[in-house]
Amino acid sequence: MTGFTRTDTSLVARWWWTVDRWMLAALALLIGVGAVMVLAASPAVAERLDLDGFYFVRRHLLLLGPALAVMLAASLLSPTGVRRLAVILLAAGLVLMVATLLVGEDVKGARRWLSIAGLSVQPSEIVRPGFVVVAAWLFATRRQYPRFPGDALATVLLGLVLLLLVLQPDFGMAFTLAGVWLAEFFVAGLPMIWIGGLLALGVGGLVAGYVGLDHVHSRVDRFLDPAAGDTYQVDTSLRAFASGGLLGRGPGEGVVKGQLPDAHADFIFAVIGEEFGLIACLVLVGLFAFVVLRGFARLMREEDLFAVIAGAGLLSLFGLQALLNMAVTLRLVPTKGMTLPFVSYGGSSLIALAAGMGMMLALTRWRPRPEAGR
If residue 121 lies in a helix (H) or strand (E), which one and from where to where? Predict the structure, then answer.
């Protein structure tokens, strides 16, 4: 029970009675699972790096408060407020991405991180939710005002973001954003004449990435032929799932976290599989699926085209990121360096995900029909 009544017209009360509380609970549960798993997986990683055992735990827990505040604040916004927030995130993220290419930290041959006030920030994470919503606004405006070049502007925006990502390079995120953009275009009404051209561009981009980027070439070759290079992390991940079996070895009994360099981040799903087993993994998969399917079910009742396209894009981004992370740990796709939403350790990723899902909660709130087009 809450202290809010149906007649209460305050901002928070109206939010409580219009937000999808089931989805909010599912996201809160994912965040809770993430806190527990970072506590379980990160101490061994920190000790290998000669850090205090709870270094990553403290940093993750310190960011949970701001992340929750960002998600709840974003969920209070109107569709107009969501658009404004997205423009701010996109503009700030693009500026920081350019700065990253110039003065960013070089980690394993990639410039994806920028040091700001002693904190490492990944600007491309900030760009993602902003790009998805702004592209949706362009697509929706084109349908509302046929003379507005929304499709062309969304395409130019995609090209700009992909260019900056490839220059870093971050081919995995470029692939993800391109897929989400295509999903939004499809929801908006993709002209048949575009399909062949976009497929050709997609295939061409994949081939160019394989031929022109050494790390992409290496990852694809190792995926197709494990003997072609180092597959230590993926092989260790698969052994963890085999070791965990149906019910797992038990909390704290896993050994993979002491062997995997990214056990607290990209490969945290393997830690879950070893310590809690197949059933826990399936429950987690079901939780991600619930958020995505619940969100789409809410959008099917929405009349505002912008809300439908933007919500579909944000849900696609969330679901695709989770799917790719879990697929990498199971060696179903080449490694991509992508975190498991709200479960993996991460600073920029956690805050950006909170902003994106907060905007999604705002767009899926129940609104009276007269306000649906606002």
Answer: strand 119-121
Q: Which helix (H) or strand (E) holds 107?
A: strand 105-107
Between CA 84 and CA 78 the distance in angstroms is 10
Region 170-183 average pLDDT: 89
Specify the 3-state DSSP secondary structure of 213. Answer: coil
Q: What is the pLDDT of residue 11?
A: 81
Half-sphere exposure of 172 (CA within 13 A, CB side): 22
The 10 Å Cβ neighbour count of residue 363 is 31
128 CB-contact burial (10 Å; exposed 0-12 / middle 13-18 / buried 19+): buried
Closest CA to 336 of 219, 236, 162, 229: 219
Helix (H, G, I), strand (E, B) or coil at 281: helix
Spans of all domains in the chain: 11-365
Q: Which strands form 105-107's sheet, in the order they lie side by side?
A: 105-107, 110-116, 119-121
* 105-129 pLDDT, tens digit each: 776 667 788 877 667 788 999 999 9
Is residue 264 within 8 Å of residue 344, measured between CB atoms?
yes
Residue 261, phi then psi, degrees to nearest 5: -60, -35
CB-based contacts of 18: which residues, under 8 Å, 6+ apart? 365, 366, 367
Round to whole Å and give the CA distance between 244 and 253: 10
Neighbours of 84 (CB within 10 A): 13
**C-alpha distances in angstroms, 161 versus 112, 156, 170, 178?**
13, 9, 11, 9
Q: For all residues of the chain together, what is the average pLDDT?
A: 87
Strand pairing class (105-107; 110-116)? antiparallel
